[in-house]
């Protein structure tokens, strides 16, 4: 994937239509869940992202044969688990890979998985993953940076999560699907990515009830069959482009969206004065000629305002005259966008997990993304500036946004990644 910096000249309206990719954060656990079946599985709507390449590298190590059978269609087949060890070099690249623990444990009866690394914005504990698996009967030890898990028989029993955790719910579900026990997960996440994972697993023959509620009941089954499944649209990418339309005071049509997954973002943009029109699986965002109002927001688990859209919203609010207050208690240190937005003239004061934002015009500057959604905040800010912004750290954008420069050009943004000159061409 192209790692050269993203150049963007802003100050122009967005226009037309953008087809939103399918969900990265639903696709990754579904790809991992394919480990539970010995039979081939075809997935549609898999975004071509570096995170997908990373998880496939780990899966290849575990024994999965993967083949792209269409631009966004992937066939996965794991007839045997060849290794029950997910090493540091592969797990540390991406936190989502930690859920292979539950999947390998279910399929092979034992698993050793390296602790996931912390993220650019701070610690992200996995204590709930570990407590859940232990409460359901797995034996877990921690040594040398690895978690080693074994199970004597099928997992069973009840676990009550201490907070809503998407990854923790994924891991506990994956560990519980095979066998003959009954597992009840209480205070489970109702996130769209958990619901999509349950729909996928049930399509392969799992027996999970309660998707979309806080209580999930898993009745173990002896095996999962193969099958075909299409992943849901990416609500975080959709939220990003809705905010981009608002920031540039444009009218933009988003296709391949689930408007019902975007209600918290839509409500905040409406409160600011943006018109949002839902029509089937499309959404029209219209901010033309609007004087947007500042707002306050606090992130929450789904269906609340998503932390994954907080940096983008902070960038938008940095352009809206008046005072906005943004709080991110889900990830209190998710603030790497702030210093970079300062370079573009933003007035943001941070205290704990609270940003107090005094909006006003921004200006182009060289900036660097230190994580995925901070990168999105920067390209949104750049769209509002006359002049050329150069965004470094494109490897983070490649984690979550498919063919970004090309798709930005499709909606009227001047965006490009200059190709480095080959040595031979410079002779
Ligand atoms: C690949 C993927 O899908 N990533 C998403 C997933 O991450 P991830 O699944 O890692 O996030 P969680 O839902 O687990 O985290 C929610 C909150 O619970 C806390 N927590 C979580 C687990 C745990 O064992 N102990 C604990 O304290 C976290 O610190 C956080 O404050 O959901 C996050 C919250 O919507 C999103 O920002 C990420 O983009
Ligand atoms: C934070 C994200 O992903 P991850 O949990 O993999 O870091 C994200 O998608 O915004």
Automatic annotation (TrEMBL):
Pathway: Cell wall biogenesis; peptidoglycan biosynthesis. The modification 2-(S-cysteinyl)pyruvic acid O-phosphothioketal is found at residue 119. Its EC number is 2.5.1.7. UDP-N-acetyl-alpha-D-glucosamine binds at residues 95, 124-128, 308, 330. It is an enzyme of class 2 (transferase). It holds the Pfam family EPSP_synthase. HAMAP family: MurA. This is UDP-N-acetylglucosamine 1-carboxyvinyltransferase. It comes from Deinococcus terrestris. The gene is murA.
């Amino acid at each position: 994937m192209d790692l050269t910096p993203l150049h963007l000249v802003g100050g122009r309206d967005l226009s037309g239509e953008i087809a939103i990719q399918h969900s990265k954060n639903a696709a990754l656990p579904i790809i991992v869940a394919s480990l539970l079946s010995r039979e081939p599985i075809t997935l549609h709507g898999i975004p071509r992202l570096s995170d997908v390449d990373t998880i496939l590298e780990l899966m290849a190590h575990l024994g999965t044969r993967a083949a792209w059978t269409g631009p966004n269609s992937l066939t996965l087949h794991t007839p045997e688990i060849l290794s029950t060890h997910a090493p540091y070099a592969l797990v540390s690249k991406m936190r989502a890979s930690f859920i292979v623990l539950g999947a390998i444990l279910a399929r092979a009866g034992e698993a050793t998985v390296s602790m996931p690394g912390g993220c650019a914005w701070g610690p992200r504990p996995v204590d709930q993953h570990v407590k859940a698996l232990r409460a359901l009967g797995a034996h877990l030890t921690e040594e040398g940076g690895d978690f080693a898990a074994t199970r004597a028989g099928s997992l069973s029993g009840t676990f009550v999560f201490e907070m809503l955790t998407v990854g923790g719910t994924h891991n506990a579900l994956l560990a519980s699907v095979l066998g003959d026990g009954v597992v009840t997960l209480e205070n489970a996440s109702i996130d769209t990515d958990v619901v999509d994972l349950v729909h996928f697993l049930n399509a392969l023959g799992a027996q999970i009830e309660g998707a979309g509620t806080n209580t999930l009941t898993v009745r173990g089954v002896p095996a999962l069959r193969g099958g075909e499944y299409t992943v849901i649209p990416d609500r975080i990418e959709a939220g990003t482009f809705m905010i981009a339309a608002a920031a540039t005071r444009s009218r933009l049509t988003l296709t391949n969206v689930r408007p019902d997954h975007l209600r918290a973002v839509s409500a905040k943009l409406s409160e600011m004065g943006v018109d949002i029109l839902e029509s089937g699986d499309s959404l029209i965002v219209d901010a033309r000629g609007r004087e947007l109002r500042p707002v306050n927001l606090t992130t929450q688990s789904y269906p609340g305002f998503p932390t994954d859209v907080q940096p983008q919203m902070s960038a938008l609010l940095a352009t809206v005259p008046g005072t906005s207050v943004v709080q991110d208690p889900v990830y209190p240190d998710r603030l790497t966008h702030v210093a970079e937005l300062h370079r573009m003239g933003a007035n943001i004061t941070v205290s704990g997990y609270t940003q107090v934002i005094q909006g006003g015009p921004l200006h182009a500057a060289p900036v660097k993304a230190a994580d995925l959604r901070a990168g999105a905040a920067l390209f949104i800010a750049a769209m509002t500036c006359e002049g050329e912004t150069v965004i470094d750290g494109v490897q983070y954008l490649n984690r979550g946004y498919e063919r970004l420069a090309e798709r930005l050009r499709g909606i009227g943004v001047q965006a490009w990644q200059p190709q480095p000159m080959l040595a031979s061409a410079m002779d």
